[in-house]
Automatic annotation (TrEMBL):
The keyword tRNA processing does not apply. This is Adenylate/guanylate cyclase domain-containing protein. SMART domains: CYCc. The chain crosses the membrane at residues 12-34, 214-233. Gene3D superfamilies: Nucleotide cyclase (3.30.70.1230). PROSITE patterns: GUANYLATE_CYCLASE_2 (PS50125). Residues 289-424 form the Guanylate cyclase domain. Keywords: Membrane, Transmembrane, Transmembrane helix. The lineage of its organism: Bacteria, Pseudomonadati, Pseudomonadota, Alphaproteobacteria, Hyphomicrobiales. The keyword Transmembrane helix applies.
């Protein structure tokens, strides 16, 4: 059975057809049971009526016809007809004795004629509460209440009692008012002589198997339901186990993907895990804006600092630069020692011009952040913090997955990427140098000045570098409230927001003295 239900569950259309057929069989089963119940009831009623008529016919033949014939055709209707030759029962006696005939069969139907005015020669009728109430009601309301019914019974059977009035006719009144044994002599036509009562009992349990088709249907439906619930319970257990395993797998994959995301650029990470990019060896030519930066004299700085301090500073530097790169939409290719390689245009691009402008804005934001970091590092006791140089170039590069089937790297190669690295080497500490290709795309947002053409290693042509001076229409006062200049033999750091009114005069005097000495130094050397 379980195998059958599993097979049905595996075929939803077949399962739906089976359920629809089962639902369609319900009215068929009900109709078959109703027809069977009707047949049984008709058969029982016909048999009861046949037996009742036979008993009445026998009673009539024996106590009426037989006695009349025995008396030579002379009939005397009296209540004690058995004691009188040719006597036949009067209606009241007939009713009493018919009740005994019908009820004596011991079936579920009984008839009784009772009255509280019984002839003196007969035993009085014992009336129960229902019969007494019925008599009182009929005598009070007359024919206005022709039938009184009462339903009784228990959980296993039901009974109905029907009582109707027996009214006095003219012949009855004449007989009762003159008969010497009558307990009442003032009867009138229409008076209630007594009641005739019909009682039918029906055992409920006896008919329960009359609904054999419906019971068979419900038994089958119950078995089907139990089997279905069992299969569902088993499947629920399987699903719970699968969900638990999936949750564990998802948690593991989420943890792994979170760790992997630390090794990939956010754009590359999203494109791989969303299915936009396949992890296969493939490259394509695209026009990119390439950014390259490194720290000036990093080797000297690393020798001057302890390894722990150097590691902390370098990680802080990379964290801040990567955050700015992410804010501007750059794809950070890699960290090469102290250098950063990033590019715009893949896997996401807003257009060649927009990518170039975003790259320049990113570089300016990075240099500004470096001023703030240098201030914080000096306060922590770092005498000579990092100074970065940046180069930017725009051109066609090969971009994609390079490597082997087992180990690959998403990166760029090409002469244009090398040019960005060469331009960075020509920049001053804290400066940004552009190629002409990039400068042509950002002239409407950046102030830059060309310097003498230079020949770079690996580049066949002469290159005109452009030094970025700032964004167009940007007030100098808004660029920074900090002066932070450093060179061999000189270090100037001035934070205007931190200088109090009392210190300004002293600092101004120190700066004036320094200016005077700087102006005097060449004269002393002449």
């Amino acid at each position: 059975m379980s195998t059958l239900f599993t097979a049905l569950m595996a075929r939803p259309i077949v399962f739906a057809l089976v359920v629809a057929a089962a639902l369609a069989l319900l009215p068929v089963a009900v109709w078959l049971d109703l027809r069977h119940l009707s047949d049984v009831a008709l058969r029982e009623q016909a048999q009861s009526l046949d037996a009742m008529i036979s008993d009445i016919r026998g009673y009539y033949a024996k106590n009426v016809v037989g006695r009349v014939n025995a008396a030579g055709g002379k009939a005397v209707p009296v209540h004690n007809y058995l004691d009188v030759p040719g006597g036949i029962p009067i209606p009241a006696t007939l009713s009493l004795e018919l009740g005994q005939v019908i009820g004596g069969r011991g079936e579920n139907m009984h008839y009784r004629f009772v009255s509280d005015f019984v002839f003196r020669s007969r035993p009085p009728h014992e009336l129960d509460a229902f019969e007494r109430d019925a008599l009182r009601t009929f005598r009070r309301e007359g024919t206005g209440k022709p039938v009184i019914a009462a339903l009784t019974g228990s959980f296993f059977d039901r009974q109905i009692r029907l009582a109707s009035p027996v009214l006095m006719g003219e012949a009855c009144v004449a007989c009762h008012n003159t008969h010497p044994e009558s307990p009442k002599r003032d009867w009138k036509v229409g008076d209630v002589r007594g009641i005739q009562e019909v009682e039918i009992s029906q055992p409920i349990a006896a008919n329960i198997f009359s609904f054999k088709y419906l019971l068979t249907y419900f038994a089958g439906a119950g078995i089907f339901g139990v089997a279905f619930a069992s299969v569902q319970w088993r499947q629920a257990r399987v699903f719970r186990r699968m969900n638990r395993e999936l949750e564990e797998a998802n948690s593991f994959l989420a943890a792994v993907s979170l760790k992997i995301s630390k090794y990939l650029s956010p754009q590359v990470y999203r494109s791989i895990f969303s299915g936009e990019r396949d992890v296969v060896i493939s490259t394509e030519r695209k026009k990119l804006t390439v950014f390259f930066s490194d720290i000036k004299d990093f080797t000297v700085t690393s020798e001057r600092l302890q390894p722990e301090e150097l590691t902390r500073l370098l990680n802080e530097y990379f964290t801040e630069m990567a955050r700015i790169a992410h804010e501007h939409g750059a794809t950070v290719d890699k960290f090469i020692g102290d250098a950063i390689l990033a590019f715009f245009g893949d896997p996401e691009t807003k257009g060649v011009k927009e990518d170039a402008q975003a790259c320049v804005r990113m570089a300016i934001a990075m240099q500004r952040r470096m001023h703030e970091l240098n201030d914080a590092w000096r306060r922590r006791g770092i005498e000579k913090p990092f100074q970065t140089r940046m180069g930017i170039n725009t051109g066609y590069c090969n971009v994609g997955n390079f490597g082997s089937e087992d180990r690959m790297d998403y990166t760029i190669i090409g002469a244009e990427a090398n040019l960005a690295a060469r331009l960075e080497q020509t920049a001053e500490p804290g400066g940004i140098v552009l190629s002409y290709e990039t400068y042509a795309l950002v002239t409407d947002i950046v102030r830059a000045r060309p310097i003498e053409p230079i020949s770079l290693k690996g580049i066949s042509r002469q290159v005109v570098p452009y030094v970025v001076e700032g964004l167009i229409d940007e007030a100098e006062a808004e660029t920074s409230d900090v002066i932070n200049e450093y060179s061999e033999g000189a270090r100037i750091f001035l934070d205007f927001g931190q200088v109090s009114e009392r210190e300004r005069e002293r600092i101004a005097a120190v700066l004036k003295q320094a200016m005077d000495r700087l102006q005097m130094r060449p004269q002393a050397g002449q």
